[in-house]
Task: structure prediction
Amino acid sequence: MLSLNGSKLKNLPVKTFHCLAHLTDLRLYNCGEMIDKSKLLILFRALTSLRNITLDGSSKLTKLPKNVKRLQWLEKLSLRNCTSLQSLPRLPRSLEKLDAANCSSLKIWLPQKIMQGLMHPSIGYLRNLRKLNLSGCQQCLLPEYMDFLSSLESLKLEGIDVKSLPTTIKHLLNLKYIDLTNCQSLCSLPELPPFIQQVKATNCILLETGVPSITYTQQLNFLYLENCSKLDEQSLSNLAECAYFSLKRRAYTNERGGVCYPGQNVAEPFKDNLTTEASNFITIELPSPANNLAGFIVYSLLPQFIPEQSAQNHLECQIFYQDGMKGPRLIFDMSCTELNSHHVFLWCDYAVFTKYEDIKYNPKISFEFSVTYSDGVLRITRNDCSIQACGVCPIYASEYHSFLEQKKLMGTRKKTTEIMEFARFSLKREKRGHFETSIIPKWFAHQRSETESSCIRISVQLLPGDETSSIWWGFIFCFYIPQFSLKERDRSHSRSACYWEDRFYKEGPKGWHYSMIKWNSDNVFLWYDPFFNESVIDFVERKGSMPKSEIFKQVLTFEFEFGDCLIKECGFRLMYESEYKQFLQENKMKLE
Result:
């Protein structure tokens, strides 16, 4: 790596760089007038092994030389604060990260014909780009076609002057994060990709439409709409219900989540559980045994406030047990420093609740809410922002199965009932019998037995199937639990997880045993979970960062535990689209 700070240099001797042909990382900061197109032409001609180029603060740079496209190993290009930069030439296909934040003169960052919609870019152009930052590029234009950025995961457009986003953004299936903060001309949002995880639209003061449907996207964790004051009452009412539904899903799948929006509308489950003790303190009695508890969704209402000093704000919810001991602390990181009106904040966290694992009565739990900020060392409670109301909604594992079957459950590949019908149909047709000394049918293809530990693991190698069945629809399990009873079901916790080599680890839903369905015995069960399926299969299909031929050499390991009950046998079956279509045809059903 070669790193130079231009503020300490009088001249940049680019002609001497020819001896650094194997240099991979070049960082030139604040070089001002010392960096121009002609000097970069010489540099790029000599340094053909570069993987990382940083030219931040080159304030006189107006264009990059065209030979930048010949840097075939280039992965990262940073041009932050190059305030005179007007356009970018064709960039190398290898590029994974482009950071052009605060390039205030930049208008064109793609070839001219693509920007004008006269040519759809080939699938090869920028196909490896994962992160794109155009924040602060107020004049920057977005192309009509964005679907060619097929690997894009993060898109930062903070402060750009656009009224709407291209509709083709919905085809960016890898996009997880989009930042539209301070896009003050933005009026509407199009349909976003189904796997988006975080949307920031703070201070989009003209935003009116396209918001409620976002909360139904499959993987959405956080939605920030602070100071979006143009949202109408109907949108806010719909948003309140959608947000509750989305966060309930997060609670069941062991993930953090949060939604904030202007107004005072909250979903019905909170209206019966608002504070009566103080505006920031509430105590509830759990209406069913605590062993059944999967988590909480918490709610706070904040008034308009302008802080005494600007800082990153946090909403905190400290849990107290009945004996006065502190429990987990649930934290929501706010994305703005001030609020222009009343705002609702809803959030959940993957905190572990272990205090009442063996308690059979219904304990009381208290929640204290506060707004804090960090001084760099400590978190300090804000005295200039009061919480006007708060509420808590417990989430129970026993309600998980009915939650999966709700009509408004959108985005999942197939509902549990449909998959179970398919499994029962296939098992009844199965003529290969069972695994040796096992009650697991051979239809499940993989089987594992356990005789001692309460935790069972089953490892499977993914198989591609034939050309007509290569589209995965999910996986289903079969369990044999000799000691299962309704008493054990209600007093025991269950956990599950999946891991793939060192690339991926995913916890399964809390209380998964409540969604098992009996099969031919009181101790044999089928289990399918659409959320768990989506997170695992989508990772394998979209995030493996390897060719499919390599994916099929990898091994997935699933882990299950159900209290002290021995899961004696476990079967696994990977399902394909062609199988399900055949099932529908044979049963004269219509494919949705």
